[in-house]
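Support request, priority: normal
Reporter: lab tech (M.K.)
Component: structure prediction queue

Hi team, I submitted a job for PPM-type phosphatase domain-containing protein from Paractinoplanes toevensis yesterday, and the status page still shows it as pending. I've pasted the exact input below so you can check whether something in the sequence is tripping the parser. The sequence length should be 384 residues. Please let me know if I need to resubmit or if it's stuck on your end.
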Amino acid sequence: MLAMEAVRRLLALRHGRAEDLPVVLARAAPLLDANSAGVLLIDYGQLSLCPLHGSTDGDLGPQAVEATAAGRCFITATETHDDGHLWLPLLHGAERLGVLGLGFKEMPSAAVRHDLEVIAALVAELIASRRFYGDAVEHTRRRLPMQLAAEIIWNQLPPLTCAVDGTVVTAVLEPCYDVGGDAFDYAVNGDVLHVGLFDTVGHGISASALTTLTLNTYRNARRSGLSLADTCRSIDKWINAQYPGSFVTALLVELDTATGHYRRISAGHPAELLLRDGRLLPALRTPTALPLGLGHMLGRAPGITEQQLEPGDTLVLYTDGITEARDANGVLFGPDRLSDFMITALKGGLTAPEIMRRLVHTIVTYEDGELRDDATAAMLQWQH
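Reply from support: The job had stalled in the queue. We restarted it manually and it finished. Here are the results:
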């Protein structure tokens, strides 16, 4: 009954703010037989877990993702514990928001921990639903000032991860505080997963404005029920009309999640990786259309490539900022290193979001912390 009272107090936050959550949690902790409770959210760089803005519990400070129990909880999306703290993942669907930390004199039983997972799920839902009614979540997640171009892009994007009936799509963007020309979008409608990965010419505000038009034209075409080819034509038409001479390279994808039938248009974009049973399959034909905004110059329909996937197949879509990253000697990261990284990570049994997190940090490290271009990647895994 005490745990139910904790639930009631948390549910009252449906009419509150995200920044009120730390206080409510702290007061509800004794009802859970805990001596402390707090929320840590993942920062934009996915390097550290930070106390939610409004926290007053000095016992729960920032935690590095690497080499901490809280970080292991985030990485694996499973409970961990250390030094009297039980850490539970905060998951909104498949999206990793952070971790819930509960302090105990003695670790609770497995049955009690199962009930606490419900509390963690409720906390995650409250954070996700209240985050847009104030800036507490944004204040928490930002470790550096965010440039305006990046602000525009991040406000356009869906959650980084989505999982439906065994199909997972997850993405990363870097530099997270200064991205301007790269973006992605997805939607699951019935049995069809739609994914778009875009790389806009230029950088900064002008690039983010073009990217905003591209994303919303893509959504409008998709929601209007246009075919894949007509979606490509629609985006191309609007870019040419509003930004003549500019262009966006893109992969426009449709995956039938029931059958594994994969269709895509490569509009001047690098080919995705297709991985199966620990090996790289031959690349699909690319490009099959001119970059978006230049299609009118060709005068023919965009080509659609089709591929039948097998259960367990992984697709990696990426912008050239990934493969064209350079080390101190000017050596490109290249598609071979990318495929080797993916094959090794998949064999290691890492989750899709964790693989993408590690990939983008590998790219940043390869360029010694200073990316020369936006680097974006999206990973699709199909199981049926």
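The CA atoms of residues 192 and 256 lie 5 Å apart. The domain at 148-381 is CATH 3.60.40.10 (Phosphatase 2c; domain 1). Let us know if anything else looks off. Ticket resolved.
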